[in-house]
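User: Structure please.
Assistant: Input sequence and predicted structure:
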Amino acid sequence: MRLDQYAWSRNPRGLHVQRVLITPLDFDRWSRPGFGWVKLVSAGTEYLDDSVEFLQRGITPVVRLYRARFGAGAFDRTMRDETMAFIRAGVKWFEFYNEPNLGIEWPAGVDIDWRNQDIIRPLVDNWLTWAEFIVSQGAYPGFISLAESDDPKASAVRWMDAFLNELRQRHYDRFRYVLANGAYCATHPYILNHFYQEVPGGGPTSARPPEAQVAREPGWHFEYPYDPLQQSIDPGRTVFGGTALTPYGDPVGLTAMGRMFNERCAQYFGTQAVPVLGTEGGIFPFLVEDQGRFYQQDNRYPPYDEVSQAQATIAMFDWIARQGPPWMFGVCLWKEDVYYNPEKTLAILRMEETEPYFKAVPPLDVMADPLAAPVEEIVPGPGPIHGQADFHMIIFGPGMNTDWFFETARPYWEVFRPIVTDDLSLIDFFESDKSLAVTIITPPEHVAMLTERVEEAYPNVWFDLIVAEKRQDVGDIFNERVQRNQRF
């Protein structure tokens, strides 16, 4: 499959229902704020009619078949029949297990630890059997969602590695088939206050105070732990850890676990981009008793109040649609009764006033080569892009210079901060562990030469060409990208 072949609303906004067995739902709670996803937790088929109504309204249902303390239970005949009822109704997105790294999902007395093969192995085996059934029906199985914890035993990064290593060692071909035919990664990105908006002109590590944040002004960062502020505090931190402060990884970001899944699957199974959906998560809204206060779960980042939570929630969905990795499809906010508690929260009110941005999904194959096993091919220059490039460089063709760019497109540089140069050979300094996107600005007479030099010499580089016939035209292109908050 390609990313653009997955059927969904293309609207990243989502909202999780409050719990099982509340039906029929108030559909306007999803339609009026412009939601494109609804997460349903179904103990049977009680949400069947609701799913049909949501689909008619252009809202994509995600169904988790719920069983209390299900642990590593198997997919049985009853669950199969319930699933088929939803599929016949038009539902395609499904989940099976939920946060097995937490004790609440298991019978009492089980040792909940990623090193315990007695739970990792049946989870993997039973999930894969279920997933093969789901893809056989033309639907999409969500890979096992985890609580995004960095606790030693519950570490989401360690659990995910344990799952994927087990699949690589025992079910390599079966899992590759599922990945290639409709699988997606279900995450639970409760991102705390791991976001910020730059101060205009203040640079990429500056952060506006909460009262100055504006949803549809540029400068938002949701790429934690890869954002410039975090990297200035603890250089080298990744979702896998990588620093003394993160021995069990750092998964608490909007795209962190999705990026981890994509990078591991690329390394182990030869994928290129696997869809990711936050089936619950978001920026914690304020409970009734906490209204008027600030939340600051991480004191390295600005706090937020009800007003900035609403602004940042809109900005988060916009960022997914316009700047996020192509594989990031959205987040279902946790949850309906909290966002209507009992009155509409400010986030709901602001979304009702703000039309959603829709995501342009590229025709990118999930598998790098659907017919071949992954190979460690050595090519010159940067490595392949998984999701989005690590670096972005603007290169000028003959007869152009950097002063011209800063005069013509300074707003673009201030928002996106690319590397700016006229030296094509700088690409050689990027080794295969880093990826690169290159924007070439050149007069028409040099287009063919530069295209050949970049695309043939550096096959992993993302190539973005701007033909500079008129200076004002180039300025207009960059200004439009700034207005859309979209780098390319």
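The chain has two domains: 3-353, 391-484.
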